[in-house]
Structures are given as C-alpha cells and as structure tokens.
Amino acid sequence: MANESRPCPCDIGDRFDCEGCGQEVEVEHIKAYVCKPAASTDKAVIVIHDIFGWQLPNTRYMADMLAANGYIAICPDFFAGREAWKPSNDWSKFDDWLKTRDARKINKEAVAVLKYLKEWCGAKKLGVIGFCWGGIAVYHLMMTYAEFKAGVSLYGLIKDSDDISNLLNPTFFIFAEKDDFIPLHQVNLLEQKLKKNCKVNYEVKIYPGQTHGFVHRRREGINPQDKPYIEEGRKDMISWLNEYI
After folding, report:
1. Is 140 a catalytic residue?
2. Stated pTM of the model
3. What is the mean pLDDT of residues 187-215?
4. How far apart, in whole angstroms, are the C-alpha atoms of residue 210 and residue 6?
5. How far apart are CA 35 and CA 178, in angstroms?
C-alpha cells in the first residue's frame, strides 16, 4: 500500500465543502453518519471511508448521493474512534499507523452496523461500497457476509498474492488507468483469478486517464477534462447497486 517516494496513494484531492444532508448517530461502540431518502425504503448501503476517515466531506457527499437515489446510506467510523490520517501527518510513520487499522479486521463494526440498519432503519436489502482503504474492506465483507447483495470496491489496493474470488454476491471493481499505486498488471491478474474461480457476477472496469481517488476526490467543475469519467464512475456505481439490491 506504500512505496518509498510516496508512502500512501491517497492525497486529499478536491475537498468538498458541502453541508451533509444527514445526521450523526451512535451505533454501539462507534459513530456513524446516516442519510435517508425522502421516501421510505428497505434498501441500505454501507459506505466505507478511506484513510481520511468517516468525517471527510467527500465521503459523506457519496452517502448523500446514495440517499438521493433512494437508499438509506450509512458511513460508520470503521477506525472505531482511532484517529484518521491527516495530510499534514509524517508520511514516514504511515505504515505503522496502518498496522493498527486493518481493513480486513472490521467484523465487530460490520456486525454492529448491520444490526442497526435492520433494527432501527428497517433495512432488508443491503449493499456496501468503499473507497481505497474502504475498497479493501469491501473485498473482505463480500467474502464474509451473505447479507450484502451487492458490493462496489473503488480503487481498493490489491497484491499479486491476493485471491478475492470467493465472493458471495455480485461485486463491481472500479480502477483508474493512471493509478500510481495499483499497477494495471495487478488489475489484470485480479480479473484472471475472478474469471477462473468466481462463482457470482462481477465486473472489473478501468477508467481511461483517471488517477487514484477520481470518483470521490475530484470535483467536476474543477476538473472539466475528468468530468465525464467522474460522472460515469458514479453512475456505474449506482447502476450496479440498483441491479442487485
């Protein structure tokens, strides 16, 4: 997830200065941001943040977008109170910081959020999306909990040794062509493994000319050349959820 020249793939990008449409709630031992659609629904999506944490406006904007498309959206603090990474932090300490925040060790938080959605929000049809660190978490959850009927992993880092073909339900993988931290050969290897071993529907899509974080860290107005791909990525994400939830 790191290299010597730039220890982390995530820069903050275009920070969104939007007021969230939802509210913060307590979900057992963690906090979460929840946004609900105007009409009642039993469809819900968990939004998993990147290294910058659950309070990043960009990620909450994605939750608001899901609510506008008819889903109960919840963005929990999967760091469980531990501090999110800040761009001003010492990057040489990033690897040590990450060791205490394993994206594959979130079962306690996932179970608490699933319970909250079912008992307090009336959710019966569930999906999950995640960005970068959260994209890795999506891999784990889609191989662990059959309750998630659809998953979307956006630029979740992968290793050559990873095998995430034991997916329980349909999963969509979004990657950027010019992602400095996810080489295309790794994406191709992932696709080969899925084609050989995966028993459920999946799609792997690479967006031309885009860089890491483009779907949730780029503003269309500031980046006009990227606008079609930003909008396409967001539309594709919603379409996948609509198809399988």
Report:
1. no
2. 0.92
3. 96
4. 18
5. 32
